[in-house]
Design brief:
By secondary structure, the chain is an alpha/beta fold. The protein contains 16 helices and ten strands. The chain starts with 15 loop residues before the first helix and ends in a 16-residue tail after the last helix. This is CCHC-type domain-containing protein.
Length: 430
């Protein structure tokens, strides 16, 4: 009769229950039904340490006088006494998913912890609740909480699908970095071509729309009747349509605000968490920047308003200063300059934002770079900023700076002592 498999001796590092289960499968596979034969096979292969333990526990009786069930229970009671149900439930309800742990590995660990919890018919409900609470991913957790009549099976399906989708997207981005980068370079090239006379293509004159090079356009010194700027005519003015529907404060802001060097643009092909952002530059502070104090997670943060930035970001220095106030999670969002330099992203946080009487929960990227904190379009769309107040602060600073320049240039006139009149002759009228 052929023999299937091999029954090894018991390894002290192995779980005793699992060893007994493997032994039962071995007996079934080889059609060993005689109880005495099962016992004798077990005693002959269990190993000298296990055999000695059994003999000591039975003394003065001999192992051969007991049944296999009695022997395995004897070892189990000695090695693995039944744990406290309360403690096991505490361990189950305290278990959360580790950062490097997959959803299915997390569920396997939870199931293992339920062995002595005695949940009975409520097991699936307990597993569902623990999955939702301990998933350690705000994105997956929000999706699960939004699902009506959520069952454990449905929760596991959604969580694993989202996890797999995120990993696949990261793999695609990693393999398609060059393509994405080339796409972003092409975006810049188009914009630059329209604004650079040396590179303008014939048939696409951005000054008047005619079929010639921009450098040869007769309107290159003309003044636009719409925006009052030099170099194009009103029908090709890009500011005309952009300013048509803006409020008075926003039109004033756009007319006074110079585009920042921190321009960030979201790639059209990106979705949800798999964003790729392009950045011209990040790091230099500008004296012309419009700044505003924003309460972020109960911290007063100075942020520079940047209408070119599609997302709001916090510098590493600011994050370190208020680190205890922020809970960040990993993100697949990427920041990359048009020269190919990648700005490392530490993580993403959902923060409580308060500005005057407004409040909102908004996303914030934390970057591993020094530089200003940027208030981008994602926050500008949610917050109604007090533009007049912002302009007055910047205007006051600029006026103060201009006054200092005048005083320095004419310090002889404004010094605190008597002076003399220069360039004039006095006549004696007596």
């Amino acid at each position: 009769m052929p023999t299937y498999g091999k029954l090894d001796s018991f390894d002290e590092s192995e779980d005793w229950t699992q060893y007994v289960e493997r032994m039962e499968h071995y007996f079934n596979a080889n059609e060993i039904d005689e109880e005495d034969q099962k016992r004798d096979i077990f005693l002959s292969v269990c190993g000298k340490n296990t055999y000695k333990l059994i003999r000591d526990l039975l003394a003065p009786a001999k192992p051969g006088t007991k049944s296999l069930a009695d022997l395995t229970k004897l070892v189990k009671d000695h090695r693995d006494p039944v744990p406290s149900e309360i403690i096991q439930r505490f361990k189950f309800n305290s278990r959360t998913r580790h950062s490097d742990e997959s959803v299915r590995t997390f569920i396997a660990a939870l199931r293992s912890l339920t062995e002595h919890c005695n949940y009975g018919d409520t097991l699936n409900a307990m597993l569902r609740d623990r999955l939702v609470v301990g998933i350690k991913s705000d994105r997956i957790q929000r999706r699960l909480l939004a699902e009506p009549n959520l069952t454990f099976e449905k929760a596991l399906e959604i969580a694993t699908a989202m996890e797999t989708a995120e990993k696949n997207a990261q793999d695609i981005q990693a393999s398609g970095t060059n393509g994405t980068f080339q796409k972003q370079i092409n975006k810049v090239s188009k914009s630059y071509t329209r604004n650079n006379s040396g590179n303008s293509k014939q048939g696409d004159c951005y000054r008047c729309g005619g079929n010639h090079l921009a450098a040869e356009c007769r309107f290159k010194d003309a003044k636009c009747h719409s925006c009052k700027k030099k170099g194009h005519i009103a029908k090709k003015c890009r500011n005309k349509s952009a300013n048509g529907n803006l409020s008075e404060n926003h039109r004033e802001f756009k007319s006074r605000f110079k585009p920042r060097a921190h321009f960030m643009e979201q790639d059209e092909s990106s979705e949800s968490e798999n964003e790729v952002y392009s950045v011209f530059h990040f790091g230099n502070k500008s004296n012309e920047a419009y700044k505003v104090q924003i309460n972020v997670n109960e911290c007063e943060i100075a942020m520079e308003i940047d209408t070119g930035a599609s997302v709001s970001i916090m510098s590493e220095d600011t994050y370190k200063e208020y680190k205890s106030k922020f809970r960040i999670e990993p993100t697949s969002a990427k920041l990359r300059t048009y020269m190919g330099e990648q700005i490392p992203v530490i993580g993403r946080a959902i923060v409580n934002v308060n500005y005057k009487k407004e409040s909102a929960k908004l996303p914030l990227l934390i970057v591993k770079r020094k530089g200003p904190n940027l208030l981008g379009r994602d926050w500008l769309n949610k917050l109604q900023l007090d533009w007049k107040d912002i302009f007055s602060v910047v205007g006051s600073d600029n006026q103060s700076s201009d006054l200092n320049v005048i005083l320095e240039a004419n310090k002889e006139v404004f010094k605190d002592e008597l002076g003399t009149v220069k360039g004039m002759k006095a006549k004696d009228l007596c």
